[in-house]
Amino acid sequence: MKFDIPALKINQKFQTFIVLSIVLFGFKLFAPGSDSITYLLINDLLVGFTVAAFIFYLMDWIHLKKINPLSLVMNIGIFTAVIFLLITFSNTILRGLSTENNIYFPKTGFIPNLVVFVYSFIILGSLSYIFLAFRELYSLKQKRDINTYFNTMVVFFILASYSTLLQKSTDLLYIKDTFFIISILLIIINSIKISWIAFIVKKEKKILLFLSIIIAILFVSNLVKNSGNNNANLLVQFSPALNQFFNIIGIYGAIYFSILFFTTLFHIPTAEAFDRKAQEVTSLQYFSKLITEVLDFDDLVKTITDIASKISNADAAWIAWQENGGLKSVGNNSIGFLDADLITSFVAENKNKYNLNETVFISMDKFQKKSQLGESFSNITVSPLRAHNELKGYLLTGKKNNFLFDDEDKNALDTFSDYASIAIENSRLFEESIIKERLEKELDVAREVQRKILPSKNPNYEGLSISTVFIPAFEVGGDYYDFFEIDKYTFGFVIADVSGKGISAAFIMAEVKGIFESLSKTIKTPKNILIKANEILQRTLDRKNFVSAAYGFIDLQNETMLISRAGHCPIILLRDNSIENLRPSGIGLGLNFSDHFSNTLEEIKIDLKENDIIVLYTDGITEAKNKLLEDFGSDLFEKILIENCDKDADYISNKVIREVTLFSQNHPQHDDITLVILKWKQKLKIDGEKEWQNSTLQPKI
């Protein structure tokens, strides 16, 4: 079971109030009225405890509410008006309850006592709320704890109220008067401590000025009416102490609201300046919050211009944002686009004339196109918007009808523009992060596409060792290699390099894969495959893109290799510790779509010997650079191949990549690296049962 602790405490205090009220009503009903000190003491103590219980209950209830000083003042006025009505119509109540001999003394019995009890309790409840409202107003917006002064005053309220029991003794009457006078002095002292008046706006102060007059009159009227014998009798008969407390609260209200009236009156001339400062502080707090939040750029600039107008009392505001080498008007607030563009152009033309490193005032008298404006602006301010010491634009505000900006406007706009600059920069960074995130997702798709395009593992076949490495320069690359089954004892291989880098090259590479994969199933020579591939690419490649490629067949049965090269790096043949660069003629795919491409394309045949090594690569290896911008070069590349020609294909490829990495460790990779090494071991033993083992390449990075 879940308990609401604050609600439980309030209920307990309210129950105490109800119990004391019942006890008090029973005492009034059954105890005979008397003028004895004992009866009056018991009666006033019961009333006092009941009032205290109700005040403690209301205290917790008020603390749960959000305190608004103007609302408290209005509530005091309402309860004071209720008391005024009760006192005004009390004559009617007294006549209905009075005896024939004394029209001001109520009859005995249940109904008369109940009516008097309800009447008195309404006044009791109203006084309790008014007392607590004064207490809240007293402590509101105080910068230090001054409750001791208020509590001291409350003690004398109590003493002054209960000292009425001594009024029948003329010798002790001075005690009652002393407590009463001290209470009034404390009321005057504490009523001066009105700190919250400075924290309300001018409009609220005007309302408060009117309310304070009305409420002060109501308190004085209640005091006057309650001082008459007719009205005093009923409340005095119920409790002399309560009647005295009523008078003290009435005096408190009359003094407090009289002082409040004059205090408010004196604050009104400075209210506009205070409201303006409050607006500036609020705006800066709001923009401090915006710095850590993310807002749409268009919404943000509208918010900036709206607040800029308020803190500088301007008639219009807009932002001149730098875009494409010029200034563009955005976030226009209370100004037309044509007017904003005309003034922005004027500022842009004269920015060298004015010192725009801080907020400056510019008179529109010097504006030659002033007659073209839809509205007449007398002067404007221009505040720079900077982020990371880079000028992003200007915040402009304008006034009409010859009203001038002052130094306070300048200081406010200087501070505000700094916050606005940071908020705008955060908005821009957020937009960039969204774009970056979207690109990252696109790159994820491209990476996944490329992963599926390249072989997941190398073919495994008796007599041939294959090793491959692919390292993209960016998230995705334009290099490509693949292996194809031509027939039972022949397989094809290809390596290609798409011009350019990044996503566009990767998508061209994906198209190239599809072309080679389909052509390899129908065309039986490398040269014809490249010729047909060039024809197909004519429909998709533009003049900015081309593809270099080398395509070859290895006949496992006859130990031969056919290969053609379309503008690609030389094919390296490593045999007997020497290197031969095979350079069959040919130009890149997509560079020419006439007969010139096929006429220049050459196909060569190589008879393979045991331990022959065929190396295919892209220029990302030979053009890898060190910190001195020196190329790795073909000489060093070939040296590594010769020194390790007795090793298997995997060892050689790992050695090459290791040396390239060490060479270029102080310079970022600028091109994709692809390496394919084929090492012929021995002649294939044909048993009539061996089948091509379908498999794909596992890239090594």
Can you put this structure into words, describing what you see?
34% of the residues are buried. The chain contains 19 helices and 15 strands. The protein has a five-stranded antiparallel sheet with strand order 2-1-5-4-3, with helices on both faces. It has a five-stranded antiparallel sheet with strand order 6-15-14-11-12. A five-stranded antiparallel sheet has the order 7-8-9-10-13, with helices on one face. A hairpin with a 2-residue loop joins strand 11 and strand 12 (578-582). Residues 1-8, 100-105 and 686-701 have low confidence and may be disordered. It folds into three domains: 68-276, no CATH class; 293-432, 2-Layer Sandwich (Beta-Lactamase), CATH 3.30.450; 454-680, PPM-type phosphatase domain (Phosphatase 2c, domain 1, 4-Layer Sandwich), CATH 3.60.40.10. The protein has helices at residues 5-30, 37-63, 69-88, 90-97, 110-139, 147-162, 173-191, 202-227, 229-238, 240-291, 297-311, 337-349, 407-453, 502-519, 526-537, 595-600, 619-622, 633-643, 649-663, and strands spanning 316-323, 326-333, 360-363, 377-387, 390-400, 464-471, 479-487, 490-498, 547-555, 560-566, 571-575, 578-582, 603-607, 613-617, 673-680. Helix 1 (5-30) packs antiparallel against helix 2, helix 2 (37-63) packs across helix 5 and helix 13 runs parallel beside helix 14. It is elongated. Helices cover 53% and strands 16% of the residues. The protein is an alpha+beta fold.
